[in-house]
Design a protein that fits this description.
There is one protein chain. By secondary structure, the protein is mainly alpha-helical. It has 2 domains: 96 residues, no CATH class; 169 residues, Farnesyl Diphosphate Synthase (Orthogonal Bundle). It is 73% helix and 0% strand. The two termini are 36 Å apart.
Amino acid sequence: MSLALSERLLCAEVRAAGSSFYWPMRLLPVRRRIGMFALYAFCRAVDDIADGSDPAPQRLAALAEWQRIIDSLPAVPAAPPAAVTLAHAVAEFGIPRAELSAVIEGMRMDAEAPMIAPPWATLRHYCRCVAGAVGVAALPVFGASDAAAERFAIALGEALQLTNILRDLAEDATLGRLYLPAEALAAAGVPPSPRDALAHPALPEACRAVAVVARTRFAEAEAALAHTDRRRLRASLAMMAVYRHLLARLEAADWRSPHRRVGVSPLIKLPMALLAFVRARA
């Protein structure tokens, strides 16, 4: 498959998914962009398995098959297409297989049983797997490999995932999930039940506690930038700008209507991502 065709197919997949990652990745140079789209396609594939309607044993078996593929990289598998493009990205950029395995571990946590009011320690581990691992895996694609860049990626990953959790309360509840940590729910007097929590008047208090942690992680990511080349992380900085804005919107809405989804318009995402990208290059 040609470089141009690979880019078009992967780009179309990311855009069709409506992902907030689309514009920050679209701003990268072509080869790095294709590498990031390949990493995204892998994450999307395993996430679709974890969130699918198949019985848990079938989903776990499908994730185990992906783990076998990861263990064989950078050898190019015959299928599926997402594995083929990932193999090329691993070979070209040296994406660490341990981080890809961590992503699968996080997906297994979702596939085994609905997560309901986990302890903070479990939630942080989950965030490290499904978000922090993606950020660390992306570093060689960006051309960043120092310890500060890794601290940035892990802190930003947790901030992004916590923001997603605060945005997707109603959607997660339809899947029988409640990712808000047990400690925050207990402190607010909110029952650890997806349906009951969303209807409880103290839900905003629990969400505010999680938002404080998300803002702290954003600040930790920002602090790590002082010790690394932020120009290499400009796509991540564009993502950080969009998600910080999303968190601010969620806090302004104060989770008074948790079934009403709060988002960021594409008309705002693009200029915001572009401005952050340009500032990072200065």
